[in-house]
Amino acid sequence: MPKGVFYVESMPVSPEREADFHDWYQNTHLPEMAALPGVVSARRFAPTNGKGPFVTLYELEADDLDAIITEVRKAAAGFTMSDAVAMDVNPNMRVLKLIGAYDPTAGAEA
Questions:
Q1: Which of 20, 33, 45, 54 gives a 20 to 30 Å CA spacing to 7?
Q2: DSSP 8-class letter at 36
Q3: What DSSP state is assigned to residue 25?
Q4: Is the pLDDT of residue 80 over 70?
């Protein structure tokens, strides 16, 4: 079964709302996303220099990775949103298919 990631960049609406943004993302949005078929897990990342968007990588497994994103868009209407999320610009989002991996303890993997 194909594996991939759904890459999403997002930002809080303001520095003063960053704690609210993280609370909503971690405790509301991630569970909603993880409940969707094909979404296996999620990991969040912050820029090391404190500048720029936060990134979430949703790990995907499905015969049709792009179909998962179609389902995410359909489900989004029912998601609990937060006014702490910057919505004035569309977040950068991409679906990426796994084409190779390497684990130094196990050797090359396909």
A1: 20
A2: S
A3: I
A4: yes
How many whole angstroms from its chain centre is CA 29? 9
Strand partners, 107: 103
pLDDT interval class at 39 (50, 70, 90): very high
Q: What is the token pair recorded at 48?
A: 């090391």
pLDDT in tens, 10-23: 999 999 999 999 99
* Mean confidence (pLDDT) of the chain: 91
On whether the CB atoms of residues 10 and 91 are closer than 8 A, the answer is yes
Residue-wise pLDDT tens digits, 44-57: 999 999 888 999 99
Phi-psi region of 26 (alpha: psi -120 to 50; beta: other; left: phi over 0): alpha
- CATH number for 3-109 (one of 1.10.10.10, 3.30.70.100, 3.40.1280.10, 3.40.1090.10): it is 3.30.70.100
16 three-state secondary structure: helix
Q: State the Cα–Cα distance between residues 5 and 44, nearest whole angstrom.
A: 12
